[in-house]
Design a protein that fits this description.
By secondary structure, the chain is mostly helical. The protein has helices at 2-5, 15-25, 30-47, 53-56, 68-89, 98-114, 144-151; strands at residues 120-124, 130-132, 139-142. The protein folds into two domains: 2-89, no CATH class; 100-166, Nonspecific Lipid-transfer Protein, Chain A. A three-stranded mixed β-sheet has the order 2-1-3, covered by helices on one side. α5 (68-89) packs across α6 (98-114).
């Protein structure tokens, strides 16, 4: 996110840029990294209100396929899921919240549509319904956090009656 708020957008998510981001933080203490995260969060929060409807629906910069709004949602998804990964790694429980689950479910639906998965309707507890590939009679129902874990390869999708093709990261 530090690259985003500093408008260094080219190549985000690629192995090379990810390695650069890791290298730039080498040797920093956990407290220093937490301070950077807080500062970047504040910068992002200050930046977002500056985007009007036209900007929000314009193509995203940096080569991301989709609108600026799609790109912001993808970042939110990443933060939400990686935050859960960190909690799992240190033995803490998930901390699902409505806004994060809504953005995560929306992002998953968008990505599944891009992959031509479905058609289906994702109808999870406590979040709006999202159509995948135009929606359909197949409904995916249940806990949104459990679905997010299944759709990202972190848990077994068969608990939703789905196969591995729902995994966003499957080849």
């Amino acid at each position: 996110m530090a690259d985003v708020v500093n408008l260094r957008l080219d190549g985000l998510g690629t192995p090379e840029v990810t390695q650069r981001e890791v290298d730039e933080r080498a040797g920093r203490s956990p407290a220093e990294l937490a301070d950077e995260c807080a500062q970047v969060r504040d910068q992002a929060e200050a930046m977002l209100p500056g985007f009007d409807e036209v900007a929000w629906n314009a193509p995203a910069p940096g080569g991301y396929e989709g609108t600026l709004g799609d790109g912001v949602e993808a970042l939110w998804f990443d933060f939400f899921m990686h935050g859960d990964d960190i909690r799992a790694a240190i033995g803490r429980p998930s901390e699902p919240h409505d806004d994060g689950l809504r953005a995560t479910t929306s992002h998953i639906a968008t990505q599944l549509t891009k992959r031509k998965w479905g058609p289906a309707t994702i109808a999870l507890e406590g979040v709006p319904e999202f159509d995948v590939s135009g929606g359909g009679s197949e409904r995916v129902e249940g806990d949104p956090m459990a679905f997010a874990l299944a759709a990202t390869g972190r848990s077994d999708p068969s608990t939703f009656g789905l196969d591995a093709s729902v995994n966003l990261y499957a080849v």
